[in-house]
From TrEMBL:
Annotated SUPFAM superfamilies: Ribulose-phoshate binding barrel
One GO BP annotation of this record: L-tryptophan biosynthetic process
UniProt similarity note: Belongs to the TrpF family.
Residue ranges of every copy of the N-(5'phosphoribosyl) anthranilate isomerase (PRAI) domain listed in the record: 3-195
InterPro entries: Aldolase_TIM, PRAI_dom, RibuloseP-bd_barrel, TrpF_fam
CDD domains: PRAI (cd00405)
E.C. numbers: 5.3.1.24
Keyword line: Amino-acid biosynthesis, Aromatic amino acid biosynthesis, Isomerase, Tryptophan biosynthesis
Pathway assigned to this chain's UniProt record: Amino-acid biosynthesis; L-tryptophan biosynthesis; L-tryptophan from chorismate: step 3/5
Protein name per the record: N-(5'-phosphoribosyl)anthranilate isomerase
Domain of life assignment: Bacteria
MF-aspect GO terms: phosphoribosylanthranilate isomerase activity
Catalytic activity line of the entry: N-(5-phospho-beta-D-ribosyl)anthranilate = 1-(2-carboxyphenylamino)-1-deoxy-D-ribulose 5-phosphate
Gene: trpF
Source organism of this protein record: Deinococcus deserti (strain DSM 17065 / CIP 109153 / LMG 22923 / VCD115)
Amino acid sequence: MKVKVCGTTSVRDAVLSAEAGADALGFIFAPVSRRLVTAQVAREAGLSVGPAVARVGVFLNQGLDEVLRLSEAARVSAVQIHGPVSSLYLEHLAAYYPVLRVLRPADLAAAQDVWRGPGQVTLMLDAPEPGGGQPLDWAGLRPEFPVGAWLAGGLGPQNVAQAVQVLRPAGVDAVSRLEVQPGVKDPEAVRAFVRAAKQAIGQSYPQ
């Protein structure tokens, strides 16, 4: 299982998350986000942690050209897509990057129709308001949670172990519960989140 720390806005926080054992960092390029980061800062932060940590560009309702331009400038290694997009959009994007396609619980009924083409597209289930800190009903989602999907939505040090044990996701992602303010990470919360997530399935993590 992979652990992603999203909303990274500085070299300091990138290094913090990597040293805590995070497998991936999220850099948000959606203009509406309070955690908006420039491609230059994301590039510097990503390069500061080395190639072993995935660097994920996060986008919302943005055109394919913009996504590809920012992703190349930031040197991300994957992209995370929120909002309505077509299968053709995903097909083009997946030719360049692994894709995390974000869905809400209400979208799960059509999850099998999200992607049928070549390329790597992985589903991520998130709350209706991403970054809002509101957890999902994990037990209620268990019967239809897709195998191999990631989980986000209100996860933090106090609840990630329970979420992992209920749904057994391929990865977990957190933002708001790891911050002292939007865009600034709480070191203790980050370390506790990674530790709790990996201990939940018996993985090791940096001491």
